[in-house]
Amino acid sequence: MTQVSNEGNAAANILGNLSIANKQPEQQSNELGQSAFLELMITQMNNQDPLSPQDNTEFIAQLAQFSSVEGLERLNEQFESFNGNFMSNQALQASSLVGRSVAVPTDTTLLMNGGIVAGSVNFEQSSSATEISIYDQSGSLIGNVPLGGRSAGEMVFRWDGQFMEVDGELIDWSTGEEPFPPGEYRFEVNAMVDGEAEQLQTSLGANVNSVTLGNDGSITLNLAGVGAVDISEVTQFN
User: May I ask which residue range the UniProt record assigns to the signal sequence (predicted)?
Assistant: First the structure.
């Protein structure tokens, strides 16, 4: 077809100019975007039957559809901007954790030079006998700390490489005159519960060396002596 009605020509010119003004670099996509919608609409108008042109109702309906498509695109852009700001805030908050200590469920951590290993264990039931075993990086046992019976609840301990403190009380036990050097150490807490030996889950403090923010917004903490841990596994921020 080579002719359209005067009303159709005017609308086509306006839409054609609008299409040019809003044209973006072409990207391969399976979605019907603003430019593609306009091209289809203009093509339809250019090829309509001059003896039976598109009436005003259909034209207005298509303009309404165009407005809806444009509104959805703007909404998507705003959401992407909001998501970007949200992830930026997460990255900023996560970066503040670097250099701090957090507690996570693990049995191995790093004793820093002049530092202290802080740990905790949750007793679901009371125990008749409890003992903390400490192993060095090579896996050799360096000592056992007998603690006797413990009641149900949380037990907190601290070790500086030489002395052990449990629930604020210094235990009469020492690994020797000189403290053990900085390095990775493994802690096992064994308890007699209902007459059976049971190894309990320990939570140990570890220093946050760096933070990784995933594309999906996930936050991974890289902990000294522990490795990569999702922030959801943190039981305490020290």
Answer: none
